[in-house]
Amino acid sequence: MKKSYLFTPGPTPIPPEALLAMAQPIDYHRSEDAVALIKDVLEKLKHVFQTENNVLFLTSSGTGAMDGAVANLLCQGDKVLVVRSGKFGERWAEICEAYGVEIIPIDVKWGDSVAPEIVETQLTENPDVKAVFATLCETSTGALHDIKALARLTQSSPTLLVVDAVSALGADDLQMDNWGVDVVVSCSQKGLMTPPGLAFAALNERAWEATERSNLSKYYFDFRKAHQRGLEGSVPYTPAITLLTALQCALNHICTEGIRNTISRHNCIAIATRNAVKAIGLPLFASSPANTLTSIRLPEEIDGKAFVKMMREKHGITYAGGQGELSGKIVRIAHLGWMNESDVIVAISAFERGLAEVGYDISLGAGVAAAQEVFAKFSNQE
Amino acid sequence: MKKSYLFTPGPTPIPPEALLAMAQPIDYHRSEDAVALIKDVLEKLKHVFQTENNVLFLTSSGTGAMDGAVANLLCQGDKVLVVRSGKFGERWAEICEAYGVEIIPIDVKWGDSVAPEIVETQLTENPDVKAVFATLCETSTGALHDIKALARLTQSSPTLLVVDAVSALGADDLQMDNWGVDVVVSCSQKGLMTPPGLAFAALNERAWEATERSNLSKYYFDFRKAHQRGLEGSVPYTPAITLLTALQCALNHICTEGIRNTISRHNCIAIATRNAVKAIGLPLFASSPANTLTSIRLPEEIDGKAFVKMMREKHGITYAGGQGELSGKIVRIAHLGWMNESDVIVAISAFERGLAEVGYDISLGAGVAAAQEVFAKFSNQE
Questions:
Q1: In whole angstroms, what is the distance from residue A244 CA to residue A234 CA?
Q2: Cβ(A170)–Cβ(A336) under 8 Å?
Q3: Could you say which of A62, A344, B63, B346 has the lowest number of CB atoms within 10 Å?
């Protein structure tokens, strides 16, 4: 009787009532019921984005919202700063280049987070930069970036701060309004506990002003159209209504828990996972690890690809391996969305068992105990 | 005990096993199981597209594939012919304009289908036209276009024929290879009986050659990337995997029935619906109606918007009203996808009841009887 456990940084497990909502007969997206659904979802997303700005949604994966952010905010030949510290920072750069936007890359060693001073220097040297593209959690490495510090730099200048919160929204803190972030993009299948297929974007007033100047080609990803229709509970094109019904269930969870508590829960289980990994004796890959996922550098004698494959096939445990240059070298254990202490215990104990099976010298239970200590500590604080 | 019946031209009803597939715990899209799923789905789509070309898929609604078709096939300043006979023909034109492509519109009265001779004349007068954009079934009017005749015109010239089969694929015949259509785009929530959120495109060899020359900006909708990854059972970006599992169930239905039989079934229930409407005494709106849906011109004294609203609220029957200039003037009854004779009987008998309720002078049962006659005739032919 094999049970399956999913610890990938998207898709993440879906709450049972959201799964069951998708099994209901489908409805027409232009009905009054659909209008109410869309309005409710967009209102609740504001809570998750910690913003008073309206949130718009698109039927696409998160990359669609990234594509749209570039296409809607910029003009041909604009110059932008792009923080590249992994696969998703690179994606910002690729999208900009695809649209003829000139990038000034800020390259950071994979696993590290950008030092805000470097961004500051670049902004001083390039005052004509229209936007800074950054990543809240670089999913490929597990590194958290200090968006609050970056917003402090851009807030008082005309430069926009555009943040990829695709994986981290709802797991790592991102106070769009309080910090002064101009644009946040995200998607459904990570902290929002919904299947992939929906993407989101929130823009503040000065970002909306930039969309009026933008001359890049776009149609499907036209933010202004999506935004305007969204306000009426409508859409320019047929939306993934099945996923919207699931999202509504998932958002009800977050709104009931409260986003601040949701982030605290993620913080607790993330610290537990990190301490467990340290107790097991392996190094964390990210220097500033996110709440979203924990990346673990494997000993050289362990083939990460084979390890991940074995864990799935033999134990029903799905971790993510490394991407790009990290392929085979790291394991990524996500702990976001529909996750609690018990899930983390399963993830860690299976990790211990797996390591022992591939010959790593481990004292079984050490990681689990370290996690339990963290849970006890957090529980006493409540 | 109100039951709900959906007769909109997308979304269409989902087969029960597809609904249940979506209620299963979600899986990682980079697992070997997902690779097998993607490969299976893409192979089965070839049967539905009646082509030996590979089909690519995108996570978006059908408009995303239309956007991609323009962005991937053309260059800035290219000249194209666009058949505009309703809202979706207009969409082709809007997308082309958004990308800086020059359009020569061929405007056709809403409800009519384009005369191939007019396209022929335009092609002769504008030999530098790079593509003709057409629509198999113009969903806003219910009109079917003679794609076979258009393909005969483009096949021997360097001009590409790009067909929006968003609503009609699997309901109205479209023999991509036999007829020589260069590009076909479609989506999940119509004939393919799957929730909205997936779009598809099939390109033949000369269309792929055009993608190599194209210089329009694109990233998320890059067809070459989607195609290349699809061949490996992979994706450039996280796909709507939940919808892929539903699609697999739906495609199994079509492949078991066989696409030729699927189209015959649609033809039978479409004729039944049309004859029923005539027996009721109302005119069909489209001069060449599609198998996909039947558009009915309402008597002037009936407010179409109120009628559609009343049918949904009082009877649980969801038809679609008119769009754009047809708002309030027509009712559209879709009969595609997971539909059989019994569904059409429900659609027609409810339509009769509703018309009687709003004071239309009707002999109840006349439409139903006309439909039954068609079913009997088709049944005898088998």
A1: 12
A2: yes
A3: B346
Rounded to whole angstroms, the Cα distance separating B182 from B172 reads 18
Peptide bond into B195 cis (omega under 30): no
**Cβ <8 Å between B6 and A25:** yes
Q: What is the rounded distance in angstroms from the CA atom of residue A155 to the CA atom of residue A182?
A: 8
Q: Which residues of B touch A60 (CB under 8 A)?
A: 59-60, 64, 220
The one-letter code for the residue type at A160 is: L
Contact B10 A95 (CB under 8 A): no
Q: How far apart are CA A93 and CA A103, in angstroms?
A: 7
CB nearest to A196's CB, from B14, B196, B238: B238
The DSSP annotation for B195-248 comes to: -SSEEEEEE-HHHHHHHHH--S--STT-HHHHHHHHHTT--SS---HHHHHHHH
Tokens of B61: 């609604």
Q: Which residue in chain A has the smallest CA separation from B30?
A: A320
Sequence-ordered alpha helix ranges (H) in A58-133: 62-73, 87-98, 116-125
Angle (CA) A45-A51-A55 rounded to 5° is 45
Residue ranges with strand state E in A192-316: 198-203, 293-297
Beta strands B183-187; B198-203: pairing state: antiparallel
pLDDT at site A125: 97
pLDDT, tens digit (0-9, with 9 covering 90-100), for B290-331: 999 999 999 999 999 999 999 999 999 999 999 988 999 999
Distance from CA of A22 to the nearest CA of B (A): 6
Is the separation of the CB atoms in B90 and B106 below 8 Å?
Answer: no
A60 and B64 within 8 Å at the Cβ level: the answer is yes
Q: Which residue of B lies nearest to A61 if distances are taken between CA atoms?
A: B238
Helix (H) or strand (E) holding B138: strand B137-138
Torsions phi, psi for B284 (to 5 deg): -70, 145
ipTM for the complex shown: 0.97
Chain A CB contacts of B4 under 8 Å are 25, 27
CA B183, CA B117: separation in Å to the nearest integer? Answer: 21
Q: What angle do CA A51, A57, A58 make, to 5 degrees?
A: 150
Using CB atoms, pick whichever of A25, A71, A196 lies closest to residue B4: A25
Name the residue among A10, A31, A236 with its Cβ closest to that of B318. Answer: A31
Distance from C-alpha of B62 to C-alpha of A103, rounded to nearest angstrom: 32
Q: How far is CA B254 from the centre of its chain?
A: 15
Hey, are the CB atoms on B63 and A20 less than 8 Å from each other? no
What sign has the CA pseudo-torsion A340, A346, A352, A358?
Answer: negative
Q: Best mutation site among B61, B215, B225, B249 for testing chain A: the one with the most A CBs within 10 Å?
A: B61
Q: Do B23 and A27 touch (CB under 8 A)?
A: no
Query: Which residues on B lie below 8 Å from A318 (Cβ)?
Result: 27-28, 31
Residue B161: what pLDDT? 98
CA distance A17 to B373: 45
CA distance B113 to chain A (A): 24
pTM of the model: 0.97
| Residue type present at position B12 | T
What is the CA angle A191-A196-A198, rounded to 5? 90
- Rounded-to-integer distance, Cα B258 and Cα B255, Å: 5
Minimal Cα–Cα distance from B380 to chain A, Å? 33
Rounded distance between C-alpha atoms, residue A26 and residue A347, angstroms: 35
What's the confidence (pLDDT) of residue B157?
93
d(CA B265, CA B261): 6
Search chain B and give the residue with CA nearest A236.
B63
Spell out which residues of chain B touch residue A218, defining contact as CB-CB under 8 Å.
98
Q: Is the pLDDT of residue A381 over 90?
A: no
B interface test, pick of A7, A22, A96 with most B CB neighbours within 10 Å = A22
User: How many Å apart are CA B258 and CA A297, to the nearest integer?
Assistant: 51
Q: Helices then strands (H, E): number in chain B?
A: 14, 14
SS3 B55: strand
